[in-house]
């Protein structure tokens, strides 16, 4: 039996889950992954978390789509998902690739020709490679003729990116995670790295052991609190009050870095005037943190030799997400805690390639490398490179596209590897919108909740079944290598995108994936110096890497910021309350997020044997005092309702959230919590307010 489990090949690749970008090796026998081992990559040095190590056998799951599917005539799009592969053929019939592609692409082409490109939209994927993201956005822009292309960055860090582009001219991190080992003070705000970036959390813990002081700022207490020097559990939705109070202390006690402000920034006077009203004494009752603790943390951050801020979606997923990030940027700028090792700003990117997909232009207002579509010079460059004419109007974002379907403006969509029926806010509305499309093409590896609403489903390849580049949260471009073949008639995504492009009249015929990467290098200065050969030999290269032979720059903004005049900009922020506050009818607060064992909408990890065995059921994390008040015992069913819907889950006693706030992971199709969330958007990043909406909870219900 031991001999049977000896791999016949080992393939070096990267983890398909989070943005940490751990390098791993697939051990394969007879086209099956036996086990996974960590490699000595720059981000993980051999470490893997439970998802990276055990979350691989989804690729072999019997639910895999192996043939193109076409919705049967007259079969209604009910919006109700059935997780039963035996019933797939009640709704869909199997088809040849020729028939499916002709119907999928041909119908989109007819909509374009009849109603114009603005009647179409596409969602690409942060789980696909850079090359897939690049070709997908190119297809939408040149084949559909619209900028209506987006992906899940809109749901995670769009507000952070909006503030970073505005303030410092670049949406990516200034320093890698590993710089926590060089920091004296580490601030983690609105993030739970132990759960969402587990290997990054291990480096934070190592840094604390080496003497760094960890400051946690979060309404929810995370496992990292055990390692924290101070843990400030401020009231939900009061980020700007707390951060402005910290800045007030730094200004009033003259702890600012005057030389840095004078030589490298603009707009400080407005910022200083704005924070004058936010004294710790005035903000303490609002944010729930006493004034002396606010003063202590402000002094510590400002006066250390190196302070680094890492943040997550607790900052970004608010209607004031951009304001939250503006405050973090201002903190770093006013103290000069940026531009050196062991300092800086690090928005922890979620998916394994959300950084790369955004870099590659999978966003409606930007061409690749964040070149604005409404900038004539940028457009001209891509028109020449792609031999086409581009739409100058920025496209619609994820939630705006759903609203545009309601309005009859968008009639057809192509969705590759995303699951908006689970991930969008107000998911009942999102499902109704998807069902209302005249034509929906979904390219995926499973019959997801979104694919269930499709007209045509194109069976695609799982992560270990293809080769491509992936960019982690540190701006490291890494090579993922094909380890196994796709099952049945499933095809590689790059092939499918090109076939769809041909149906839309684009004569694409890229050979090896490196040909796409080479085209990207020619149009994206930031990665212009990264050759495929170097990726093959080194496995990972950090950008900016402008010319061949450049080492790449792990720490940026050392001398200048990529903004006008080379200076960063302070942008003041004031308190804006959440869109939907608790009231008599809906008296509690819902916070959504992820679990360690499951990934986003669960389509992969809930089909990974070990991970689903660890967390098999939909749960809500409820404070014990709330359980007592509700008359509910741990393990009982509870019904959670908002103004938009209700779900039933199992209650789990958990005091990490404050009394009155319930945390629910969004990975469970049986209790899709995004049926309840609020689609109100941050006006700049257009990100929904996943971290706060009003709910009521009652005992009982059927899970
Ligand atoms: Fe994968 Fe992230 Fe875990 Fe690393 S930390 S193994 S990249 S999920």
Key structural traits:
25 helices; alpha/beta; seven-stranded mixed β-sheet; six-stranded mixed β-sheet; 703 residues; binds iron/sulfur cluster; 32% helix
Tell me what you see in this structure.
This protein is α/β, with parallel strands linked by helices and 703 residues long. 32% of the residues lie in helices and 19% in strands. The protein is built from 25 helices and 30 strands. A seven-stranded mixed sheet has the order 5-4-18-17-16-6-7. The chain starts with 8 loop residues before the first strand and ends with a strand. The site of iron/sulfur cluster has 14 residues, from helix 1 and helix 8.
Rounded to an integer in angstroms, the radius of gyration calculated over CA atoms is: 24 Å
Largest sheet: 7 strands, mixed
Any low-confidence stretches, pLDDT <50, length ≥5? none
The mean pLDDT is 96
- For the record, give the distance between the C-alpha atoms at the N and C termini, rounded to a whole number: 40 Å
| Class derived from helix and strand content | alpha/beta
Beta-strand percentage range: 15-25%
How are the strands ordered across the major sheet?
5-4-18-17-16-6-7
Per DSSP, the total helix count is 25
The hetero molecules present are:
iron/sulfur cluster
Percent helix = 25-40%
- Tell me, briefly, the overall form: globular
Number of strands: 30
Task: Please render the helix and strand layout as text.
Blueprint: E1 9-14, E2 23-29, E3 32-38, H1 50-54, E4 69-71, H2 88-91, E5 92-94, H3 97-115, E6 120-123, H4 130-144, E7 149-150, H5 153-156, H6 158-168, E8 185-189, H7 193-196, H8 198-209, E9 213-217, E10 230-232, H9 239-252, H10 258-264, E11 265-266, H11 268-275, H12 280-287, H13 291-303, E12 307-311, H14 313-316, H15 321-335, E13 344-347, H16 354-359, E14 366-367, E15 371-372, H17 376-386, H18 398-406, E16 412-416, H19 420-423, H20 427-436, E17 439-444, E18 456-459, E19 468-471, E20 476-480, H21 493-503, H22 513-523, H23 532-538, E21 540-542, E22 568-569, E23 588-593, H24 609-614, E24 619-622, H25 624-630, E25 637-642, E26 645-653, E27 661-665, E28 678-681, E29 688-689, E30 693-699
Parallel strand pairs: 6-7, 6-16, 8-9, 8-12, 9-10, 11-22, 12-13, 16-17, 17-18, 23-27, 24-26
Antiparallel strand pairs: 1-2, 2-3, 4-5, 4-18, 14-15, 19-20, 20-21, 23-30, 25-26, 25-30, 28-29
The structure holds iron/sulfur cluster (SF4).
């Amino acid at each position: 039996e031991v001999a049977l489990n000896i791999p016949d090949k080992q393939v070096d690749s990267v983890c398909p889950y989070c943005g940490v970008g751990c390098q791993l090796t697939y051990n394969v026998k007879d086209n099956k992954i036996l086990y996974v081992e960590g490699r000595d990559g720059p981000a993980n040095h051999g470490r893997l978390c439970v998802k990276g190590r055990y979350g691989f056998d989804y690729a072999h799951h019997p639910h895999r789509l192996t043939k193109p599917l076409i919705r049967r005539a007259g079969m209604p799009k009910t919006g109700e998902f059935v997780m039963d592969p035996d019933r797939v053929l009640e709704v869909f019939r199997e088809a040849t690739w020729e028939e499916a592609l002709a119907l999928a692409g041909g119908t989109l082409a007819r909509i374009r020709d009849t109603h114009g490109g603005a009647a179409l939209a596409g969602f690409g994927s942060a789980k696909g490679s850079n090359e897939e993201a690049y070709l997908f956005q190119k297809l939408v822009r040149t084949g559909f003729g619209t900028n209506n292309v987006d992906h899940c960055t809109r749901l995670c860090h769009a507000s952070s990116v909006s503030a970073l582009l505005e303030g410092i001219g670049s949406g990516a991190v200034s320093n890698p995670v590993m710089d926590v080992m060089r920091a004296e003070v580490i601030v983690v705000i609105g993030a739970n790295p132990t759960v969402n970036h587990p290997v990054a959390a291990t480096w934070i813990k190592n840094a604390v052991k080496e003497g760094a002081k960890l400051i946690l700022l979060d309404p929810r207490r995370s496992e990292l609190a055990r390692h924290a020097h101070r843990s400030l559990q401020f009231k939900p939705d009061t980020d700007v009050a707390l951060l402005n109070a910290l800045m007030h202390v730094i200004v009033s006690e003259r702890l600012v870095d005057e030389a840095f402000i004078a030589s490298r920034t603009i707009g400080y006077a407005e910022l200083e005037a704005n924070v004058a009203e936010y004294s710790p004494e005035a903000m303490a009752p609002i944010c729930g943190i006493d004034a002396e603790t606010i003063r202590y943390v402000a002094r510590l951050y400002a006066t250390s030799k190196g302070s680094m801020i890492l943040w997550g979606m607790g900052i970004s997923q608010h209607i004031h997400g951009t304001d939250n990030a503006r405050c973090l940027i201002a903190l770093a700028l006013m103290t000069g805690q940026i531009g050196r090792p062991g300092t800086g700003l690090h928005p922890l990117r979620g998916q394994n390639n959300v950084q790369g997909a955004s870099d590659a232009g999978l966003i409606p207002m930007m061409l690749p490398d964040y070149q604005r579509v409404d900038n004539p010079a940028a457009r001209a460059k891509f028109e020449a490179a792609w031999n086409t004419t581009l739409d100058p109007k920025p496209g619609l974002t994820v939630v705006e596209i759903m609203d545009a379907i309601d309005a009859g403006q968008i009639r057809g969509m192509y969705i590759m590897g995303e699951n908006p029926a689970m991930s969008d806010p107000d998911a009942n509305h999102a499902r109704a919108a998807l069902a209302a499309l005249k034509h929906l093409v979904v390219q995926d590896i499973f019959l997801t909740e979104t694919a269930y609403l499709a007209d045509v489903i194109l069976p695609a390849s799982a992560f270990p079944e293809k080769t491509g580049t992936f960019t982690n949260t540190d701006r490291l471009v890494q090579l993922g290598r094909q380890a196994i073949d796709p099952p049945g008639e499933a095809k590689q995504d790059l092939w499918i995108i090109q076939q769809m492009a041909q149906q839309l009249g684009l004569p694409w015929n890229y050979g090896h994936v490196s040909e796409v990467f080479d085209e990207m290098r020619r149009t994206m200065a930031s990665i212009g110096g990264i050759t495929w050969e170097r990726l093959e030999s080194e496995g990972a290269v950090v950008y900016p890497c402008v010319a061949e032979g450049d080492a790449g720059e792990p720490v940026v903004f050392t001398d200048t910021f990529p903004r006008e005049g080379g200076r960063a900009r302070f942008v003041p922020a004031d308190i804006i309350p959440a869109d939907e506050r608790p009231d008599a009818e809906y008296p509690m607060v819902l916070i959504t997020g992820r679990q360690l064992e499951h990934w986003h909408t669960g389509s992969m990890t809930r089909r990974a044997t070990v991970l689903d065995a660890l967390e098999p059921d939909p749960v809500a994390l409820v404070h014990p005092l709330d359980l007592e008040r509700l008359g509910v015992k741990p393990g009982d069913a509870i019904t959670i309702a908002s103004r938009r819907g209700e779900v039933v889950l199992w209650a789990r006693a958990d005091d990490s959230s404050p009394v009155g706030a319930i945390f629910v992971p969004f990975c469970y199709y049986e209790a899709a919590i995004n049926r309840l969330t609020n689609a109100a958007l941050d006006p700049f990043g257009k990100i929904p307010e996943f971290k706060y909406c009003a709910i009521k909870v009652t005992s009982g219900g059927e899970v």
